[in-house]
Amino acid sequence: MRRVLAGVLATTVLAGLVTLAAHASPRAAADEPVVVVSSTFDDGTAQGWTSRAGEAVAPSTAVAHGGTHSLAVTGREQSWQGPTLNLLEKAQKGIRYDLSVWVRLAAGEAPTQARLSVERRTGGTASYDQVVGDTAVTADGWANLRGSYTLAADVEFLATYVELSSATASLHIDDFSLSHTPLPPIQTDLPSLKDVLADHFAVGAAVGNAELLNNHGQLLAKHFDSITPGNTLKWDATEPTEGAFRFTDAEALVSWAKANGAAVRGHTLVWHQQTPAWVFKDAAGNDMTATPENKALLLARLEAHIRGVVGHFGDDIPVWDVVNEVIDENQADGLRRSKWFEITGLDYLRTAFRVAREVAPDAELVINDYNTNVPAKRDKLHDLVVRLRAEGVPIDAVGHQMHVNVQWPSVAETEAMLAKFVPLGIDQQITEMDVSIYTDDSQSYPTPPAEVLLAQAYRYRDFFELYKKYSANISSVTLWGLADDNTWLDSFPVTRKDHPLLFDTRLQAKDAYWGVVDPGRIGGPTSTTTTTTTTTTTTTVPPATCAVAYAIGSQWQGGFQGEVRVTNRGNAPVTAWTLAWSFADGQRVTQLWGGVHTQTGSAVSVRNASWNSTIAPGGSVSFGFLGSWTGANGKPTAFTLNGVGCQS
Ligand code: 9MR
């Protein structure tokens, strides 16, 4: 099974509720968790939980994590058997849910491992998405399985379930919860990365299909003009069994890209990971050894795979990571000892590029690798590219993954990496960049320290400055993820929350974003993850030289989104501003972007963010906020800018 989302996110564990909450409202207030399902079994029923296939589930008082009951599961005969709950009417597409369940083995059972997964079916085809991977469980205590899941497809069946590595062990589960925390709107008033970088190179993000939807999709569309499917074009996703191609997920991404004017980077045709076992079985079904027959069979499979995948998408995918991670600088010849290499030598590389060029003559063909800044690896990659191109192998570009961190590598070493390939006259692409906040495996921050996030912002600034310097040689820069809510670094090299991207877990711009867009704004108060105080100097404006437009963008039970535009009608710039008003109906601002707010009673005061402190004559600034209300939600009618009344 493929891991869909890493799950080390803060989940609100809610115990004690028995009821199934009504359908989650996407208009619930941002940042307050909404519990969609809570199963405590304390009413002595199974609360909708059933067995997957014939095993018995029943409320039990033998053990309980909280309250009086758990759910006992007995009579299992297969490892995949276990308790399951139908979520079809409960979970919505495009919402990131937090799932949590407590698991304990029945008395006397030997320790084993438990997993939490989701089964979904579309058009009769089942997919199994793992939410929480193997977790040690015993009969002596409760283990918590907790992770996140976003449904990205239309489904006719949706259920979560717990399974064990042991085929027969009996178990208990308790205090299951399915909840989600609504996201604030994305910041629409920020410069788009793709506009800021338009003169230099395309800017991309690697995504899963869940990130094409709702707020994630809006953020992706606003900032990126290239997208890379993180997993859906890999061999295990596209040809899980020989000749049976599956393109549904990748097709959804390609359609989205077309509709939103983004290019697609195809990733990846040949890799030593995420390749199904059948690829390396010989004609008799045994593991291949290096024989001429097996070499011919493997190359034929490779050719069929590339014809199937590249041929399917044709012009819709104009660039392919044809081969991924084939260099091992610790080998004298620099070549990774993968199954591909062991059985075919260099011929898998020759075949892959030749066939890709035949099937997609106009596509750009890339050799992609990580740690290409490391001099030994860089040089081995360089020499391989030179050698193969001399033979006529059609390699058009070198992909530098750039999985880096806040300290490593140096900009100088990275520049040497780019410079090394310039004499080849070959295109270069940054294909998988992220900047981990960690510099060794022992670190783990419950909350990322402000100084580390600042250091990260300066790293982004420095790397993007370098890329711009080489922009004649670099056609695209792709980040390996959209926002910090979903990054492979949450589970690599150890499990801990990382924050390696430009947008935070609530999809708001980080200082890292400003590092790319406008380094002068690093450390400004718009950042949601650092606290920096700005000193404001007040410029007094003459009377009635401002105009304020206050609008309620949307309103729902108890909450609303406000949008405010302040225009300078005077002849002099306003170099720092504070806008004040009073709410008549007891409303409260709960979150604000594009400024810094305080509220005392009904009096609201919003001062500028660091980056919008100046309002030119005739110019305006905007900010938005989320608010709460009860009873009435009248619009304020009187505003002051720096203490002076405005038109409204
Ligand atoms: O982001 C991908 C993650 O979801 C997979 O679990 C992982 C392991 O196969 O692969 C990740 O992407 C990798 C990419 O395809 C190649 N370079 C390294 C990336 C991070 O592991």
How would you sum up this structure, described in words?
The chain is an alpha/beta fold and 648 residues long. The protein folds into three domains: 33-180, Galactose-binding domain-like (Jelly Rolls, Sandwich); 193-536, TIM Barrel (Alpha-Beta Barrel), CATH 3.20.20; 546-646, Immunoglobulin-like (Sandwich). It has eleven helices and 29 strands. It has helices at residues 193-196, 214-223, 235-238, 248-259, 292-313, 339-344, 347-359, 375-391, 411-421, 450-469, 511-517, and strands at residues 34-39, 50-51, 56-60, 70-74, 83-86, 96-105, 112-122, 125-137, 143-150, 157-164, 171-180, 202-207, 226-229, 263-270, 319-324, 364-369, 397-400, 403-405, 427-436, 474-479, 546-556, 559-568, 578-582, 588-593, 595-600, 603-608, 620-628, 639-641, 644-645. The strands form five sheets. Strands 12-13-14-15-16-17-19-20 form an eight-stranded parallel β-barrel, surrounded by four helices. Strands 1, 3, 4, 6, 9 and 11 form a six-stranded antiparallel β-sheet that branches. It has a five-stranded antiparallel β-sheet with strand order 2-5-10-7-8, with no helix packed on it. α5 (292-313) runs parallel beside α7 (347-359) and α8 runs parallel beside α9. It is globular, with a radius of gyration of 27 Å. The model is unreliable at 1-26 and 527-543 (pLDDT under 50). Ligand 9MR binds at residues 3, 230-231, 273-274, 324, 370, 401, 432, 488.
